[in-house]
Design goal:
mainly alpha
């Protein structure tokens, strides 16, 4: 029984510490700085190029084929019949003189 109070104290300390485990916080690793080369400002514009040479004119094409004959047109509209006249005058030319 000599060790009973000491064992009880150690046992109670273990039981109570098992219920409340402190959260272990791992500090973040320090950020690593990486030096990246940055491009400088743009340079001046280049010189204008020389004008291009004019090309040759192409050859004239061949004459096309003659087209086919067109189709016959449609029949025209019929005219109105003539009216009968009561004053018909018939002109007879004079006979030619005999020679």
């Amino acid at each position: 029984m000599r060790y009973a109070p000491a064992a009880l104290a150690v046992l109670s300390a273990l039981v109570l510490s098992a219920c409340e485990r402190p959260t272990v916080v791992v500090p973040a690793a320090p950020a690593t700085v990486v030096n990246v080369p940055v491009p400088g400002p743009a340079g001046p514009a280049g010189a204008t190029g020389a004008p291009a040479e004019k090309g040759d004119t192409g050859a004239t094409g061949a004459t096309g084929a003659t087209g086919s004959t067109g189709s016959t047109g449609s029949e025209g509209v019929k005219g109105e019949p003539g009216k009968t006249s009561t004053d018909t005058v018939v002109i007879v030319p004079a006979p030619a003189p005999r020679r």
